[in-house]
Specification:
This protein has about 55 residues and is an all-alpha fold. Helix content is about 70%, strand content about 0%. It contains 4 helices and no strands. Helix 3 crosses helix 4.
Length: about 55
């Protein structure tokens, strides 16, 4: 599986805008399943999504 760098700040900003994971994955140019895999495997991805959602709420 090729590694594609995910910009954690961009991920957080998109989550803060209230985007769904499907919308975030589209904005990042990756599949939704890739984003779900990264969310499960990489603590920083999960943290960025949660932090962004909290910031946007």
């Amino acid at each position: 599986m090729p590694t594609i760098a995910t910009d954690i700040q961009q991920l957080e900003d998109l989550a803060a805008k209230g985007l769904t994971l499907a919308e975030i994955s589209a904005a990042l140019g990756i599949s939704e399943s890739t984003l779900y895999r990264r969310e499960r495997a990489v603590t920083a991805v999960t943290g960025a999504i949660k932090k962004g959602q909290a910031r946007g709420a």
